[in-house]
Predict the 3D structure of the following.
Amino acid sequence: MFSTKTLGKIFGTTALIALLIMSFRTPRSAGASELSVLFEPDGSGIWHELVEQFNKGRRVRVRLVEGPPATDAREDMYSTAFLGGQSGYDIVYSDVTWIPKLAAAGWLLDLSNRLEAAEREDFLQADLQAGVYHGKLYRIPVVTDAGFLYYRSDLVRRPPQTFADLQVEAMRHQSQNRWGFVWQGKQYEGLITNFLEVLWGHGGEWITPDREVLLDRPEALNALEFLRSAVGNISPPGTTTYTEEDTRMLFQNGRAVFLRNWYYVWTLSNRPESEIRGKVAFTPMVHAPGKTSAATLGGWGFAISRFSPDPDAAWEFVRFATDPKQLKTLHERTGLIPARMSLVPAEFAEIVRHTRMRPQIPEYSRASDILQRWISAALTGGTSSAEALSAAARETRALLK
């Protein structure tokens, strides 16, 4: 459980946006005949359809509440609701990084005994493990995601294997109207996922399972120096303002040779209106000589609030929504990759089976904020790479003491 001091800090950060959050919240019905779940905006309408399908003939119905598109805003909405105790959301649609915080606070139901062994074996193990905290399972995976290195297959004959290969190929095919390598460098969670893949590719680590901070090591310095040297050379000067969609549009419009991004780009870049349709391939992120590639794990899954008046009914919905039939429909409608091995498209299996989780710590969001701030300072010239990493390591150790 969190201490009173820790809970106070969480409340302090969320209270500042409480008025905005409340505009998205719809109070749950007083009785147990209705359960609620908070989602991102359902642009495809698929989740509304699945919820309606589940509700047919059910004693307890599920109500879908659409929140803001920003992941951190929805995390704050869940935290604010749970701080109120017996109010809020029954079912949690959770990002891979949320579980340690929510479980450590005592807000989630232990699902360890509800998932059968045969079911466990079909889920991607990294995605399943992302729902585990202190040996207990709190989250059932729905969809998985991973960082991919996309490239123009009509320009690049052989995909790069190392960081040096990437630099050479990016420079070779860069032109006045086309950059060599685009990636997400804005100060937000996307920057962390980019940095981690480069850090892991150099053989480094951020925070170990036993909470040791390794940011002030040579591997981390090499990783940050690679990214810093790319800005303005093989990557646009505006990289430090780019998010996923900024980089996807540059690549899809033919203005980049290489792109680091998530799975969804594959579907969009091969649509009829795409300027690079049929000219795109992907490969795992590059690595240093003698090291191995790694992709940051992304994805979503379902957890159940400890405060729900009917956890059995909530579990029935989780079982329904994570059933292969529903996950197959979700993939067909949205292109998202189901978190079951039996449903992962063959061409993506190698990458999604070799993903790595971000640190599973309750303090993750604050540790991420620290690292984002210092990496951004180095990338924008506010400090040196060595000074940034030293400061980030010092602040993170103080956080985890």
Observations:
- The radius of gyration is 21 Å.
- Confidence is low (pLDDT under 50) at residues 1-31.
